[in-house]
Amino acid sequence: MRIVFIQPKVKYPGNSFLPLGIGYLAAFLMEKGHQAKIFDLEVQKISDEELLKTINEFNPGAIGLTATIASAPEAKRLGKIFSERYPWILYGGPQPTMNPEDFLLSENSIVVRGEGELTLSELCGVLSGAGDFFQIRGVSFLKNGKPLHNPERELIKDVNVIPFPARHLYPLSSYEMHLKDKRATNIITSRGCPFECVFCYNMGGRVYRPRSAENVLAELEILKNQYGFGAFSIYDDNFTLQKQRLIDICQGMLGKKMKMAWRCYSRVNTVDEYLLRLMKKAGCFEIAFGVESGSQKSLDLMKKRIKVEERFCRTRHNLCA
């Protein structure tokens, strides 16, 4: 089956990094024998007419639209246009997962809820003509105008089996990503977060599923040697959660003499002075901590599970490492 994945443009784009979710989906499907194409309309400045012309040349059996709260209006607008021209319109991402009925705009609309690789793989097989998608877990759809929601899909336990994102499908020349004056990209080394901060919606679930250090290092070597990137931003919710894995990744980067600059997200209670110094030695130049508040009462209400004094202590270590 041929499928087109689209990242809709947003009114106020926040960055020019790759929307990796659709890259993972494309790679997973191609491994199963399907064909895929990616459009990132945040960086590709093309009209609806140009987009439709290019899609028509590919002749897909389905269009996949990813949506956050910021891109949801544009995803719906495009979905309405596509629903009159292509057999199936598939929606995924945080917003369709949270509010699937908002995206069931026509009888040929299907929402893939949550983690999409396994669900989408089954769905593409069915939409190609074999089976009934009414039995596929993790999808929502309309039947005789009534929204139906199939049971949830279980998360992939071993994320090492997921192929690296299909970066060759992105318009890489359209991205202007630089960190420390080096050409940069983004990477995800784990899925899920075990913490329960009340303000956070985590697409990866509340179970932390890290890729192995070997798997991460293999992708970093491809980013450097095949694509020529000299820097990267780690998009994990908490890159430093598993201490030994972090040590193995940093030591692996040093051993392979990668000399890449990088940054990550962390929690103040998952790092210590040894880790910070090792990370800096391995090329880390910036860590974003979710401090949230200087009030312990507020932190407790948020269920952050950190102490104000930890915040100050770790920040000092970070500045001095």
What ranges have pLDDT less than 50 throughout 5 or more consecutive residues?
none
Question: How is the largest sheet built, in terms of strand order?
Answer: 2-1-3-4-5-6-7
CATH topology name of the largest domain, in short, is Rossmann fold
Could you give a short account of the major beta sheet? 7 strands, mixed
H/I helix tally: 10
**Distance separating the two termini:** 51 Å
Secondary-structure element pattern, one letter each: EHEHEHEHEHEEEEEEHEHEHEHH
Q: For the residues shown, what is the average pLDDT?
A: 91
Radius of gyration: 21 Å
CATH architecture of the largest domain: 3-Layer(aba) Sandwich
What's the CATH superfamily of the largest domain, by name? Cobalamin-binding domain
CATH class of the largest domain: Alpha Beta
Count every beta strand, where a strand is a DSSP E run of 2 or more residues.
Answer: 14
**Percentage of β-strand residues:** 15-25%
Helix content: 25-40%
Counting helices, strands and paired strands, the structural category is alpha/beta
**Count of separate structural domains:** 2
What coarse outline follows from CA principal-axis ratios?
Answer: globular
